[in-house]
Design brief:
Keywords: ATP-binding, Helicase, Hydrolase, Nucleotide-binding. By secondary structure, the protein is an alpha/beta fold. It contains 29 helices and 27 strands. Helix 21 links the parallel strand 17 and strand 18. It binds adenosine-5'-triphosphate.
């Protein structure tokens, strides 16, 4: 046996050596390419500005491209070279631009069959890596993973192997090859390479990849993309690509790899930018390293849905009842009323109300005039052609209504309102009848208008009577309950309007407020301002080296950031966790991709939005009539079967009839159930605060009461349950969570996530204080898309009861672990003798 192991080891070492030789050759070639690019850049800089402007521009553009190439080559890639395929001879002898043979099918005589066994010679070997590298003679040293020639690396299966005989995943660090793992696509075949039998090492790369410990950042899956995923990644970019699949099927990973693929396929087209919309900043932080690891950084903006509007960085969540209102398309009607109504609200810092009797030219409304809030001017007095002219409240009201007719953006109607005011004053002046000659009459009118519009008092009146509105100002105006009640009449019920107004009085923006701001921005229109110069394409700007230098100094990341800030529309929009976008958020995202192609990935069973039909309607509106291509991912790469089976029980409750994805592996470790029975006072206080307060006070009250109660509740515990995985526990919820987190930190090498109901977020962070960076506490809605080696799900019933979509949110929480899961019951869970809470029983 020992001799056999030693033989395997020596074959493995030999094969590692073979790949090392190839990797060394690749790095030598890369260095040559880097020198070439550096030479080009320096040479151009030294030559200064000679030649015609056209030639200079062309040269500078070349240098610019060389600079980008250089920065890609210099990128410190881990696993620069990660794959290899050994292929049969192809049908024809044609080669593609990457130097590889293009034929997908084997040549007719590629396989010999002696009646007992098949034999073949390997006709072509390709190495696959993060970017393509050609040798000096144009033979392919590395094929870019996105090139057509690399597709068989991902697509080939034993059922449909194509030309592939052996697929190898190569693991390396820096310039050193560490290991190889092979999969045989034609296990029945005796294949030889250069006269030697083709060796096969290891049990396949996928399992090795899945078993690795998780960190707080996502890894790319470029070396182990599976066939059904590859179909999505390489789907043609036309129109809309829709991808659905259960938890852990690789939707996020596929979306990110697709962005890299699209850029590779058509860099010029996607210079218009790719936007990836993510549900939370946590998921943005988790995923944002993947694209740089694939050699792509510029041109892709990953944004959380709460950070899509420039300047807003919302992370707070509204309580479910408020979120439901803010996300609903009913808000559109309310906002339409609000933008028109907000005209009558004096701008911050407006002069104190005065009356006509004060003798001012500006007259402001009586304090309690009907429908006219204090501070809105209700009389205009001006002097023109030596005459005093006046417009009274009812005339002003008529003019305003007239100007507001239709649905045009309110800020853009100001010039029209101004014109109507002047018309009314002109009519009053009687000057119209004074001059019959049309040309002279026009002149007279023009000097009349000049007379009035240059008067400070008229300008001040207009500013107060038709103020320039900003989205934030309108949102702030909606925080007034009475006012909002008026604007929301017959759209929201009084309770909804009250809660909405109250939530808008809170400091800072919530995630749902951002979509409202964006809608308001559209309804208001940008105020007329002096035009900004068009932001030119970087290549347009390259007319000389001075301009080139600052360009080169800007890093890829900075450039991406800058472009993202400036961009309001994108060439391709990728929506991750699309099931969570509310109708108002779909409208916001839709505006950014009016002319884009789309990739939309999601899982309805994980939706935290309460009204899926309403959201589907808004999604259809955003995507328009573009044709859709649908894909479904079916394999769960994250959860072991033991965890997936438990989660399936909640899925059956949350969305009866929905099929779970198939878990690809099993660990033999069953989920663990922990009960506590001493948190009565905690829960009581918590319940109280939920019903009475806004989110801010929920957190405060809860945190406060838990600390106090925890201190009191150390004794008087009842033992509950024993048996399968259950632990009889003698402490309160806080202690149970902490102890379990500590235990799991000892069990796994990577991360531990503790998922609690949203209103326990603050407390849970306190429970885990001092346990280090490997463990994090997160609210149920924040767990979306993330994964950990082990998770603790605290009080399933609390999570499920939080909102109408609570069971689906619980399903998300239960599907975050790659290795181990512990469920800790709270008071509402009603655990059985095994500690299994009622929601998770058969
Ligand atoms: N082909 C693959 N090779 C290796 N790992 C993979 C593969 N596909 C997916 N994974 C891993 O499985 C995990 C789940 O992937 P991902 O987060 O993309 O799934 P998801 O469908 O977006 O899940 P969720 O719906 O729960 O957010 C990740 O760790 C990912 O790296």
């Amino acid at each position: 046996m020992a001799a056999q192991d030693a033989a395997v080891d020596s074959v493995r070492d030999r094969e590692i050596g073979v790949e090392q030789v190839h990797l060394d050759q690749v790095y030598r070639r890369l260095e040559e390419k880097i020198h070439e690019a550096e030479f080009l850049v320096n040479d151009a800089a030294q030559r200064g500005q000679v030649g015609t402007p056209g030639a200079l521009a062309e040269r500078d553009a070349q240098v610019f491209r060389a600079g980008i190439h250089l920065s890609r080559l210099n990128n410190e890639f881990e696993d620069f070279l990660f794959g290899r395929i050994d292929l049969l001879y192809g049908k024809d002898g044609k080669k593609g631009p990457d130097g590889a043979y293009t034929s997908v099918e084997p040549a007719e005589d590629a396989v010999r069959d002696d009646g007992t066994r098949q034999y073949a010679d390997i006709g072509e070997t390709l190495h696959i890596g993060r970017i393509g590298v050609l040798d000096a003679d144009y033979s392919p040293l590395v094929i870019d993973w996105r090139a057509p020639a690399a597709a068989p690396f991902y697509r080939s299966t034993p059922v449909d192997p194509g030309r592939v005989v052996r697929r190898r995943v190569i693991r390396s660090k820096g310039r050193k090859v560490l290991g190889v793992e092979d999969d045989l696509m034609r296990p029945e075949m005796k294949a030889s390479l250069n006269g030697q039998e083709l060796p096969v090492i290891g049990d396949g790369a996928l399992m090795a990849a899945l078993g690795q410990a998780r960190s707080h950042t996502m890894r790319d899956i470029v070396s182990s993309i599976q066939a059904e995923q590859d179909l999505v990644i390489r789907a043609p970019a036309a129109s809309v690509t829709e991808v659905s699949g259960g938890p852990g099927t690789g939707k996020t990973a596929v979306a990110l790899h697709r962005a890299a693929y699209l850029l590779y396929q058509d860099r010029r087209r996607y210079a218009g930018g790719i936007l990836i919309v993510s549900p939370t900043p946590l998921l943005v932080a988790y995923t944002e390293g993947v694209l740089p690891s694939l050699g792509e950084e510029g041109q892709v903006a990953i944004r959380a849905v709460g950070s899509l509007v420039d300047g807003a960085e919302a992370t707070a969540y509204d309580e479910p009842a408020v979120a439901r209102v803010k996300g609903s398309s009913r808000m559109l009607k309310v906002l339409r009323k609000a933008v028109r109504g907000a005209l009558d609200i004096p701008p911050p810092g407006a002069p104190a109300p005065r009356t006509a009797e004060d003798g001012g030219q500006l007259a402001f409304g009586e304090e309690d005039g009907p429908q006219v809030p204090a501070g809105t001017p209700d009389r205009l007095r001006v002097v023109a052609f030596g005459r005093r002219l006046e417009l009274e409240a009812d005339e002003l009201h008529r003019i305003k209504q007239n100007a507001l007719g239709g649905t045009a953006p309110v800020n853009l109607l100001r010039p029209r309102a101004r014109r109507l005011l002047l018309d009314a004053l002109w009519a009053k002046s009687g000057a119209a009848t004074r001059e019959r000659d049309p040309e002279l009459a026009a002149e007279l009118r023009s000097s009349f208008d000049d007379d009035i519009t240059t008067e400070d008092s008229f300008v001040a009146f207009l500013d107060a009577w038709w103020p320039e509105l900003t989205p934030r100002r309108v949102l702030a105006a909606m925080a007034d309950e009475k006012r909002l009640g008026r604007w929301a009449r017959r759209v929201l019920n009084p309770g909804e309007a009250r809660r909405l107004a109250r939530s808008l009085r809170r400091e800072g923006l919530s995630v749902h407020d951002v979509a409202l701001l964006d809608e308001l921005r559209t309804l208001l229109g940008a105020p007329a301002r002096p035009r900004k110069r068009r932001e030119a394409d970087p290549l347009d700007q390259l007319t000389g080296l001075e301009e080139l230098m600052p360009q080169r100094e800007e890093s890829q990341r900075e450039r991406a950031e800058r472009l993202a800030q400036e961009r309001t529309e994108y060439a391709h929009v990728i929506v991750d966790e699309a099931q969570d976008l509310t109708p108002m958020q779909w409208r916001m995202v839709g505006r950014r991709g009016k002319h884009a192609t789309w990739t939309v990935v999601g899982d309805p069973a994980q939706s935290s939005w309460s009204d899926p039909d309403e959201a589907a309607e808004a999604r259809d509106e955003a995507l328009g009539t573009r044709p859709r291509r649908r894909f479904t991912l079916t394999v769960n790469y994250r959860n072991p079967a033991e965890i997936a089976q438990l989660a399936a029980k909640v899925l059956a409750l949350a969305m009866p009839g929905t099929e779970s994805p198939k878990a690809v592996r099993s660990t033999g470790v069953e989920p663990r159930f922990v009960t506590t029975n001493n948190e009565h006072s905690v829960t009581t206080n918590n319940e109280h605060s939920v019903t009475t307060n806004t989110e801010h006070s929920v957190t405060t009250n809860t945190e406060h009461s838990v600390t106090t109660d925890d201190e009191r509740s150390v004794t008087a515990n009842r033992q509950r349950g024993s048996g399968r995985g259950s632990v009889v526990r003698d402490g309160d919820l806080a202690a149970a969570v902490r102890e379990e987190a500590e235990r799991l930190l000892r069990q796994v090498d990577g991360t531990v996530g503790v998922v609690v109901a949203m209103n326990r977020r603050g407390q849970a962070a306190g429970w885990l204080a001092g346990l280090g960076e490997r463990v994090v506490a997160l609210g149920s809605l924040e767990a979306k898309g993330l994964e950990y080696d082990a998770t603790v799900v605290v009080s399933p019933a609390e999570i499920a009861d939080e909102s109408p979509a609570g069971l689906r949110v619980l399903y998300v929480a239960l599907t975050r672990a790659t290795q181990q899961l512990t469920v800790i019951s709270g008071r509402r869970d009603d655990p059985d003798a095994d500690g299994v809470p009622d929601l998770l029983r058969d």
